């Protein structure tokens, strides 16, 4: 893991980090577009063909949807403490996300004139969950629970099958606990297309959310003209701001925890202490050799791992706001004071006992967060992603008279006499 000075960090390195969201999907966009077109035209036939091609699993149409019996059987494959952990996490997510819920409101701006807003949930939502040989039940909870709280009527989950044709038990149990209505064993770009356009088996939805690889991201971008999508997803990121009081073991373990996600993950430490920088570098080397995903961590640390020594914490925060990381940890004496200066981050973890892993799993925060610098203008997934805000206006004759003259004047100023007449005709 390289250690560089703030002076070395400025310029090309910082610029590349700021502009990292400009992912080039051109090499796969044509293939993804064809998959989407095939699914749109052929429906289930294309789903089955692509599932066999990409997942090496041969299914029939009747096997696309996971049965209630399979879900019941999935519980038998998990330990009681695992089921309890999923339920506890779902409950924590629910508590946090209920607080986000918006309510209807109205405002009497003058006599005879009422303005307001009503909240309506989306009717159908599709949740994509990465799968295959991996298992991400936490992603199921993070996406389904907020949608359920928002009042979404129908929540559809799509996830790739394992080589044996089954969906991992943990994902099925999580989907059941969270309240998903249906689960389909289909993944990749074909799953995104199925949820966007619908097939005989898989319903089309109003919005698609959830993480995935570059093919899934490209597919979501491809169908975004026809269905709403969430934030673009990329490799995991962590940026830690730390001073001389930080524990190097804690800092190193948190960098490694995100590095183990993906060889392209970003793991950066900004610190005012040269001593801490050296200790963290040593700890990273020591700790990653003890873990099962050493190769992934090593690749990530070599390409996206960086320790930058800065002159002061103000400079560190300035860099953090420019980079806009997915996860920002603050491990300093005055952590809450630093938090007040943060403008751009997917989620912030304050203090040495607040690892990102708590946000990834159990605390109730949502781990579907903007990566690639998108935290400058996107927020993490929330109940707000599953609702619509509908504005309304209600005038009586008195309110009409208050607005008539101003409206007619502006309509005539813009040369829209039809607008003006729609007002004056009511005199």
Could you explain how this protein is built, in words?
It contains 18 helices and 14 strands. It is globular and about 80 Å long. A 6-stranded parallel sheet has the order 1-11-10-9-12-13, with helices on both faces. It has a 5-stranded parallel sheet with strand order 6-5-4-7-8, sandwiched between helices. The protein has a 3-stranded antiparallel sheet with strand order 2-3-14. α11 (248-259) crosses α12 (274-288). The chain folds into 3 domains: 2-23 and 234-364, Rossmann fold (3-Layer(aba) Sandwich), CATH 3.40.50; 26-229, Rossmann fold (3-Layer(aba) Sandwich); 396-424, no CATH class. The model has no long low-confidence stretch (mean pLDDT 96). It is of the alpha/beta class and 427 residues long. The termini are far apart. The protein is 46% helix and 17% strand.
Q: Main attributes?
A:
427 residues, alpha/beta, Rossmann fold, six-stranded parallel sheet, 18 helices
* CATH fold label of the largest domain: Rossmann fold
Helix content: 40-55%
Distance between the termini: 75 Å
Mean pLDDT: 96
In the CATH scheme, the class of the largest domain would be: Alpha Beta
Low-confidence stretches: none
Give the helix/strand layout.
Layout: E1 2-5, H1 6-9, H2 12-18, H3 26-42, H4 44-55, H5 68-76, H6 80-98, E2 105-110, E3 113-121, E4 124-128, H7 137-150, E5 154-159, H8 169-178, E6 182-185, H9 188-197, E7 207-209, H10 214-223, E8 228-229, E9 237-242, H11 248-259, E10 266-271, H12 274-288, H13 294-304, E11 305-309, H14 313-323, E12 327-331, H15 335-339, E13 347-350, H16 356-360, E14 387-395, H17 397-413, H18 417-424
Parallel strand pairs: 1-11, 4-5, 4-7, 5-6, 7-8, 9-10, 9-12, 10-11, 12-13
Antiparallel strand pairs: 2-3, 3-14
């Amino acid at each position: 893991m390289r250690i560089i000075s703030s002076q070395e960090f400025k310029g090309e390195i910082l610029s590349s980090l700021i502009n990292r969201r400009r992912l080039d999907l051109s090499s796969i966009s044509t293939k993804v577009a064809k998959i989407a077109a095939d699914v749109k035209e052929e429906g289930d036939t294309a789903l089955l063909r692509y599932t066999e091609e990409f997942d090496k699993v041969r299914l029939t149409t009747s096997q696309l949807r996971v049965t209630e019996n399979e879900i019941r059987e999935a519980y038998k494959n998990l330990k009681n403490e695992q089921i309890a952990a999923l339920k506890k996490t779902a409950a924590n997510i629910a508590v946090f996300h209920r607080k986000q819920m918006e309510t209807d409101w109205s405002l009497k701006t003058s006599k005879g004139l009422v303005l307001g807003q009503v909240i309506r949930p989306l009717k159908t939502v599709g949740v994509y969950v990465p799968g295959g040989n991996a298992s991400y039940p936490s992603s199921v909870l993070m996406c389904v629970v907020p949608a359920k709280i928002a009042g979404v009527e129908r929540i559809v989950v799509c996830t790739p099958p394992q080589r044996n044709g089954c969906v991992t038990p943990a994902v099925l149990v999580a989907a059941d606990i969270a309240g998903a209505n249906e689960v389909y064993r289909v993944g990749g770009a074909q799953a995104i297309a199925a949820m966007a356009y619908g097939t005989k088996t898989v319903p089309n939805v109003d919005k698609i959310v959830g993480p995935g690889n570059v093919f899934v991201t490209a597919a979501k971008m491809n169908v975004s003209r026809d269905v709403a999508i969430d934030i673009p997803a990329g490799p995991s990121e962590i940026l830690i701001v730390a001073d001389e009081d930080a524990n190097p073991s804690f800092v190193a373990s948190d960098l490694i925890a995100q590095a183990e996600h993906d060889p392209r993950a970003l793991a950066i430490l900004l610190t005012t202490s040269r001593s801490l920088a050296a200790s963290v570098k040593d700890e990273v080397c020591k700790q990653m050799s003890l873990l099962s995903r050493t190769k992934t961590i090593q690749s990530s640390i070599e390409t996206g791992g960086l320790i930058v020594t800065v002159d002061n914490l103000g400079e560190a925060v300035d860099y953090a706001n420019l980079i806009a990381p997915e996860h920002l940890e603050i491990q300093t004496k005055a952590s809450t004071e630093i938090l007040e200066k943060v403008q751009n981050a997917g989620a912030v973890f304050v203090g040495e006992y607040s690892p990102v892993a708590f946000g990834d799993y159990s605390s109730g925060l949502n781990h579907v967060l903007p990566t690639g610098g998108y935290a400058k203008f996107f927020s993490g997934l929330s109940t707000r992603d599953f609702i619509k805000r509908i504005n309304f206006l209600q005038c009586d004759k008195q309110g009409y008279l208050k607005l008539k003259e101003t409206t007619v004047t502006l309509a005539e100023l813009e040369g829209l006499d039809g607008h003006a007449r729609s007002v004056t005709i009511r005199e």
